[in-house]
Write a structure and sequence with these properties.
Blueprint (H helix, E strand, L loop, with lengths): L6 H10 L4 E5 L6 H6 L4 E4 L6 H10 L11 E4 L6 H12 L7 E5 L16 E5 L17 H6 L14 H10 L10 H22 L7 H13 L7 H8 L9 H13 L7 E2 L21 H8 L3 H5 L2 H19 L6 E6 L5 E7 L5 E7 L5 H21 L10 E6 L5 E2 L5 E4 H4 L11
Parallel strand pairs: 1-4, 1-5, 2-3, 3-4, 6-7, 9-10, 10-12
Antiparallel strand pairs: 7-8, 8-9, 11-12
């Protein structure tokens, strides 16, 4: 299978030029090892069944022996031997901090009590996600997020969509798992289902060695999926989980399962953006329920592509998850973060994309073209309220949004007369910067 360029390729290269070691972390099956192998010169895979016992015994007695090899040396699934973290940190120090010595990959986070030093200044972290539409060659990536933010004259008008709604349904339900790209559609749809099965049957207990009930894990994922892209409260999700007659669950136990799913990078909620736009307005501050990939929600609900075609309202929430996934990927090297805005009057922005330098975009995700006007109206009203706030509260001004974007499943990109950018996710999704095309 030909290796397809990833946004992470350039990120890894840049970090290897600056730090002694790089940790690539993220959900399993996203291609972390394959991406790391493109730049590593030697590899040790701790889960190699022929050598796992030998490797673990060596890690317990003298972990530095496992670090010997041509550099950059890739240590795959390092979390199976947590003592390797301090060994890598020490080796980087002993070499005088020379950059590009080690690459570590991991599919779950390690309890901080198992390592002695944070690794600050020696080991840098970068996240990988399932593949974006651009990485899977299903979006041209012609619209540059860098240009959108920094070039006021950037012209996006006239680009037409590469995927129609049925094709959007398929790529969202299939997900961004690299293994699916060479499969026939029917086979590709099984990958996300198997992923959910593996998480529930094995990973949720293996992540920290604590036995958890697969049936409870499955029911939590199903309820989370029903509430994806919403601000559903924990109490509501718990009530849905325990609605099944044979499941009894306390809030503490529920929190334990959610923590395990977060450590596995399955669940990745986003927080609220809470500027004091109007002082008397109560803001929604609960996290928005999200998965790392839209296909997990589809698989957890056990819905087929054909069934989803008759449930486009539900697909609207899945569509938003796909937008979130791809935005996180395309802006990862900007040290960005994603939040949302919603107040008690119903004024909202589905997403707020914040860059490290303070610039930000207000974004609405609207599957159908008929919803674009409503999305634009919300964004413009938030901008108007910020301007009004700044006229009356000059000592504590709020930065105005740099971009107003409606991401859509429609057919054409254009800039409205009111300045709102309408961008079809399926054709022009946001590229990180121009050099990405040369990876």
């Amino acid at each position: 299978m030909k290796y397809l360029s990833r946004v992470a390729d350039k990120m890894l290269q840049e970090r290897l030029e600056a730090f002694g070691a790089v940790l690539i972390e993220g959900p399993k099956w996203t291609g972390k090892t394959t991406t790391a192998e493109q730049q590593a010169k030697s590899v040790i895979k701790l889960q190699n069944p022929d050598k796992v016992n030998e490797y673990l015994a060596t890690a317990r007695t003298k972990p530095s022996l496992l670090l010997k090899g041509e550099q950059p040396r890739l240590i795959d699934e390092w979390q199976d031997a947590p003592m390797l973290w301090d060994a890598v940190r020490t080796a980087v120090d002993d070499a005088g901090g020379v950059p590009g010595q080690y690459i570590l990959t991991g599919s779950n986070t390690v309890d901080k009590s198992q390592i002695r030093h944070t690794g600050t200044g020696r080991i840098t972290r970068m996240k990988m996600y399932p593949m974006s539409l651009w990485e899977s060659l299903e979006s041209s990536g012609e619209i540059s997020i860098h240009e959108l933010f920094y070039n006021p004259n950037y012209d996006i008008d006239g680009a037409t969509s590469k995927l129609d709604i049925p094709e959007l349904l398929y790529v969202a339900c299939r997900g961004g798992w690299p293994a699916t790209l060479q499969m026939k559609p029917k086979a590709a749809m099984l990958i996300a289902k198997d992923y959910v099965n593996s998480v529930c049957e094995n990973d949720i207990s293996a992540v920290d060695g604590r036995q958890r009930n697969p049936k409870v894990a499955r029911q939590i994922l199903r309820s989370y999926a029903r509430n994806v892209s919403t601000l559903a409260k924990k109490t509501s999700i718990l009530a849905d989980v325990t609605a099944s007659e044979d499941i009894t669950l306390t809030m503490n136990t529920y929190d334990d399962y959610i923590s395990a799913l977060e450590r596995l990078f399955v669940i990745q909620d986003i927080d609220a953006w809470c500027p004091a736009i109007r002082s008397k307005t109560s803001l929604r501050s609960a996290p928005k329920r999200c998965f790392v990939d839209p296909s997990i929600a589809v698989a957890a609900m056990n819905i087929s592509v054909e069934e989803m075609e008759t449930q486009l309202k539900t697909f609207g929430f899945i569509f938003e998850q796909m937008c979130i996934r791809d935005l996180k990927i395309y802006t990862a090297d900007f040290n960005s973060r994603i939040s949302y805005y919603r107040d008690r009057y119903g004024l909202e922005a589905d997403l707020v994309l914040h860059l490290e330098d303070g610039r930000y975009a207000l974004i609405e995700c609207k599957l159908g073209s008929s919803e674009i006007d409503d999305g634009a109206k919300h964004l413009l009203e938030i901008k108007r309220l910020i301007q009004e706030h700044n006229r009356t509260e000059k000592q504590v001004p709020i930065r105005e949004p740099d971009l107003l974007i409606v991401m859509t499943g429609g057919s054409m990109a254009y800039t409205r007369q009111d300045g709102v950018k309408v961008i079809p996710v399926s054709y022009t999704h946001l590229r990180a910067h121009e050099t990405l095309a040369n990876l």
